[in-house]
Design brief:
The complex is a heterodimer of chains A (about 210) and B (about 140). Chain A is of the alpha/beta class and about 210 residues long. Chain A is built from 8 helices and 8 strands. Chain B is an all-alpha fold. Helices cover about 80% and strands about 0% of the residues of chain B. Classes of the chains: A alpha/beta (about 210), B mainly alpha (about 140).
């Protein structure tokens, strides 16, 4: 009876440019010990410039490569039907100037936004009203309310983003972590779909 | 007779508009996920209904005090706490709003600054605090 190869593709893999994609890079596998070494070293694809920095390795192409090595092997696959290989050139350090510009953008932008908000909702009148209701006095500039209000504003944002209490209270991710994750998932989904489309296009081109 | 009709229709109008504004406020809070967030942080997830009641009673209480002008003479120092609390609430709304609009994930990813996201967050928080202080202490007085 022929041995079985159990195969699980990874979802996303990062490889340096110039390195061929080996089966061991993108998959975990379980099989006869003497088969394992050569299978892990099996070359699946050599990314070239044409591929861009994202290469989609489909399970079908993996299986056909394995079949060239062991034509009679049973292949059982689990998990993802494809792996997205991200080919990276040396990771560039963050551009300091860009970072400073973004920082200032957010800094002044949020300052302006909060002033606009105060204007929109007539916050000064509301503050004067609150002070009147609580103390019976009419104060034009109720600093006792407004200065703590300003600091409370920052505090509320920090609490929402779970920065202060991150590790102390629980391991639950902050909404920002979840948002980042959801966004990356959507990008991943889009890229995979797009790569499949390109793959189909290339095949059609070849057939012509 | 006319007075009765006027009174009844006004009462109906008041009830209807109150209903619209109240459900609007709740819908806004629900979309922004502020209450679940607070429950999660304070570990009071099982008492979510009580937190919702806090919002409802707060809204009704302050509507009544405001509309009827129910004022009590009092000292100024409690204003510090009221200020901190109201500011905290507005801050959470602001944070939740950027969250819903996905500002941070997109900015950070586009500019490959995922690891510096903390500092970008700090920029926004400090910007809000200083912007607000500038607004009250300088902009409105000069």
């Amino acid at each position: 009876m022929q041995p079985t190869i159990y195969l699980r593709l990874r979802k996303r893999v990062r490889l340096p440019r110039g390195k061929p994609v080996l089966l061991g890079d993108i998959a975990q596998l379980l099989t006869e010990p003497e088969w394992e070494g050569p299978l892990l070293e099996l070359e699946l694809h050599r990314p070239d410039r044409m591929d861009g920095n994202l290469v989609l390795i489909d399970i079908l192409s993996v299986i056909s490569k394995i079949k060239t090595l062991h034509s009679d092997a049973e292949i059982e696959t689990f998990g993802e039907p494809h792996t997205l290989v991200e080919v990276y050139t040396k990771r560039k350090p963050t551009n300091v100037v860009a970072f400073i510009i973004v920082w200032l953008l957010l800094f002044f932008g949020s300052g302006l936004a909060i002033m606009n908000f105060h204007e929109d909702v007539s916050m000064p009148e509301v503050h004067q009203r609150i002070v009147y209701l609580l103390t019976g006095q009419t104060v034009e500039h109720p600093y006792w309310l407004q200065i703590p209000y300003s600091f409370g504003l920052g505090l509320g944002m920090v609490i929402f983003f779970n920065h202060v209490f991150k590790k102390k209270i629980n391991e639950e991710p902050s909404p920002l972590d979840v948002e980042m994750f959801k966004y990356e998932e959507s990008v991943h989904h889009y890229v995979v779909t797009e790569e499949y489309r390109k793959l189909a296009e290339r095949k059609r081109g070849r057939r012509r | 007779m006319n007075a009765v009709i006027a009174a009844v229709s006004q009462a109906f109008l008041g009830l209807a508009s109150g209903l619209a504004v109240g459900s609007g406020l709740v819908a806004f809070l629900v979309v922004l996920d502020v209450i679940p967030r607070l429950a999660q942080i304070s570990g009071t997830s099982t008492r979510g209904a009580d937190l919702e009641m806090a919002v409802v009673t707060g809204a009704v209480f302050w509507t009544v005090t405001d509309l009827f002008g129910l004022t009590v003479p009092g000292p100024s120092w409690p204003l510090i706490f009221i200020g901190l609390l109201t500011g905290g609430f507005v801050g959470m709304m602001a944070a939740a709003l950027t969250e819903v609009l996905n500002v941070f994930p997109i900015t950070a990813r586009r500019l490959r600054m995922e690891i510096h996201i903390k500092w970008l967050l700090a920029a926004m928080v400090i910007g809000k605090v200083l912007g607000s202080l500038f607004d009250w202490l300088y902009f409105r007085t000069h």
